[in-house]
Amino acid sequence: MYSEPLLVSQLLLAVSKTKLFLHHQERIPPSGPMLVVSNHRSFMDAPLLMSAVGRPIRFACHHYMGQVPGMRELVTKLGCFPLEETGKPQKKFFQQAIRLFETQQVVGLFPEGAQPMVEFTKPETMGQFHKGFAHLALRTPVERLCILPVAIASVEESVSSAVPLKLLSWFDPSEPLFNSSGWHPFVVYQRVNVLIGRPYWITSVQREELRGKRMKTVVAELIDYCQTEISELLRKGCN
């Protein structure tokens, strides 16, 4: 059964004439709670991942996306929920994400944060991951949670300047990246490989066992797994 976010995603890809090539589709669990983590360079990443996975994904998006007219309506249609202002605790997001997992839904996160969206980066490059997604996965009280690393490897794209960053600072003055005099890039994929990584499963038994270990070490291991998996797939997909 198709949901509105999934239909909107497929419509956006059709309108932009994006050719999506999906690799390792057999790695995608057909059901159950799942956390999708991916590299991030374009506004198209959320609809692209949703179309690839074939399930509605509730993506966390940057705070400013919920403030800008037009963009606010689009992210709402896609089922995204904006984060709190930069520097504030994301308690509300954690609570909402856990509720979604408890009802067997899919949550999407871009662990690199906003920087690769605001400052143009090459398709094969990827920044360091923030640790929030790992803490979320390890704290979610479900029997079995899948963390699915996915690489978005652009093969052909167009890049233009969307809006001045200073303009976005009017909507979200909390974001230091918007203090730059540059422009927000607008990346549209023409041909893109979406490569599904090997799932990382966290069970309730594992979660119980982790309580006796240092959380910092466990978080670092999970981040390293996802970052390495996506990085290797990215190199393959961009060649």
UniProtKB/TrEMBL annotation:
Residues 34-155 form the Phospholipid/glycerol acyltransferase domain. The keyword 4Fe-4S does not apply. This is Lysophospholipid acyltransferase family protein. It comes from the Bacteria. It comes from Floridaenema fluviatile BLCC-F154. PANTHER family: 1-ACYL-SN-GLYCEROL-3-PHOSPHATE ACYLTRANSFERASE, PHOSPHOLIPID_GLYCEROL ACYLTRANSFERASE DOMAIN-CONTAINING PROTEIN. It holds the Pfam family Acyltransferase. One of its GO terms (molecular function) is acyltransferase activity. The keyword Transferase applies. Keywords: Acyltransferase, Transferase.
